Amino acid sequence: MISSSGSSFYLLCCLAVLLILPFSSLSSDPDSLQDFCVANLNSSISVNGFPCKPDAEVTSHDFFFDGLSKEANTMNVFGSNVTPGSVLEFPGLNTLGISMNRVDFAPGGLNPPHTHPRATESGVVIKGKLLVGFISTNNVFYSKVLSAGQMFVIPKGLVHFQLNVGEGKALTFTAFNSHLPGAAVVPLNLFASTPAIPNGVLTKAFQVEDDVINAIKSKFGS
Ligand code: GLV
Ligand code: MN
Description:
By secondary structure, the protein is an alpha+beta fold. It has four helices and ten strands, in the order αββββββββββααα.
């Protein structure tokens, strides 16, 4: 039999678990254990994240980044360009669990289907008109055409894309709950990996002949 003090203790424990659970399941990168840990990207020590630059060497410069201020060149097969602002470009983000990208689109440009293995993405369209879509693990396609000021969210790890469906150029800024979200670009993963995936895998997966696979591979220079 549980005494009344025992049952209140039990209730308190349940309450504590209920309060803590959502935080552990919602977080992506782990919480930091200090104010900041500006990354030393050149350290030979290998850890989960990057070692911290000594506090004495940290300056204001470490907490500001202008790498997303310029329009990028979109002259490539996709007609889009992702400029990353992750810990690799902006070491002040190390351990803080966030980062951003800038994505420029030529008219008709596509940010091709890709996934971020370590982060949920949200974005805001700054200029133009974008068809933004993702596919769930149940194979349901969710999409909407967005214009300037409108936001979107892509749940962690799901395949997604943005296509410029407006008349002119388009621009979006995206944000991630990881300092290094990673990006696996589906067409490049499948048709331009090193070494190449054997044609036998791709012909079977896509139910086409060898020449179709070779034609697609040739578009990516292999
Ligand atoms: C857009 O999908 C991005 O990854 O920045
Ligand atoms: Mn993305």
